[in-house]
Amino acid sequence: MSAIALAICVPLVTAVGIQLAARWSDNLREAVTLVGAATLAWVVWGMLPDLFAGERPALMLGELMPGVTLAFEVEPLGMLFAALASGLWIINSIYSIGYMRGNKEKKQTRFYTCFALALAATMGIAFAGNLLTLFLFYEMLTLSTFPLVSHKGDEATVKSARVYLSILLCTSIGLLLPAIIWTYHVAGTGDFTAGGILEGNISGADVGLLLALFVFGVGKAAVMPVHRWLPAAMVAPTPVSALLHAVAVVKAGVFTVTKVIVYVFGVDFLFATPSAGWLVYAAAFTIIAASLVALRQQNLKRLLAYSTVAQLSYVVMAAAVLKPLAEIGAAIHMVAHAFGKITLFFAAGAIYTAAKKTELHQLRGIGRRMPWTMAAFTIGALSMIGVPPTGGFVSKWYILAGSFQADNLVAIFTIIISTVLNAAYFLPIIFMAWFVDEPPGGKEHGEAPPLVVLALSLTALLTLGFFFFNGPVIQLEQQLVQEMLR
């Protein structure tokens, strides 16, 4: 069996194993989860040497209809997404065990099963060789995460989960699917091809319209106004929030938008087509507007949700700048944001588990009771702002360099303004946690369970380490640039 098939099958087998193991014991169920996560990482990361050597592993499972196949291919951007998701699944599983036990959550077997199914869908998206294959696994990811978002089962949670499901399904079926059909109609293929497949097959205003169908059809990228599903999904347990914001769902969105720009439209074709220029402005508006909304939030998870909406559009804007350095920056920001934001959500979940605190005003002095957690939160927040030595500085540097390369003043000023806004809503939390006295009569508590603290410490270290050790990612994405310039 090929490595691509294994990457998709391992999470599926893990899901079955979780169901079977749960009949014997919770410990065995969680062991199966960890073994499945480690095995997936071993399979995915094992493909890296071939990719660095210039090979492009591929797999074709069959023809769904004349000219339309279920096909997979490994390329630099997809490899980065798959490696990131598979690696973080291990840490998220460690965190989940501590969190779910610490909060005595119900339906844990269903939780771990759906989590594994979501990773299978993520692998399918990452390695999709054409638009239809990507669409099928994109929908599988939406459906497999709905039970996770609605996990608590109360009326308010189910209502919010329905918002999550309806927005993502309506955008994908109503906009993304027509865009895919249109592409197959005009180009005769939906295969992801270096340099794109649309040049000479579509022109003028139609290019901008097709791009809009793709961008807003990929609701998981959360470009305004199709972003409301993301704050609505904050009713989910924190490990699910981490899945949504760092491991799979939102990364599937910005990955898809970037891949469509590079491998369907082609950056040179888009750069030469004036009707496509709106995307930079849409992404810039989303960044600034979401940052302003985040500034007004008093609930920690909602603040982080709107921060994610803004940070995602950094990737979209960087891809839309259509310059090599910016495209590298888009890919790097996927990684930097994943490490930083999963750390922030892990910290929020740790605070809830140990102290049942969810609002910003409740965090006064909490750094003294939970120093490990708040140290990790501080590192994650500084990465979102873009302060060295964190991974967020590296990605913003490349995006800014690409914006200067394109003389794109909109992108340049958006990065500057949004960085100030990021600091405006994160630095007061850090200050309050470390330098403001805790109010009298507060609940006695310490750190969250050890597995929770271990997981958030690991992701905080990754956030710092990525500042110093980002060479392999840059080397991988330079292959993407070379394919862009063909």
UniProtKB/TrEMBL annotation:
**Membrane topology for this entry?**
Multi-pass membrane protein
InterPro entries registered for this protein in UniProt: CPA3_Na-H_Antiporter_D, ND/Mrp_TM
Protein name per the record: Monovalent cation/H+ antiporter subunit D family protein
Asked whether the UniProt record includes Acetylation among its keywords, one would answer no
PANTHER family reported for this sequence = NA(+)_H(+) ANTIPORTER SUBUNIT D1, NADH DEHYDROGENASE
UniProt keyword annotation of Cell membrane present: yes
Q: Which residues form the NADH:quinone oxidoreductase/Mrp antiporter transmembrane domain?
A: 128-421
Where is it found, in Gene Ontology cellular component terms? Answer: plasma membrane
Task: For this UniProt record, give its keywords in alphabetical order, as a comma-separated list.
Answer: Cell membrane, Membrane, Transmembrane, Transmembrane helix
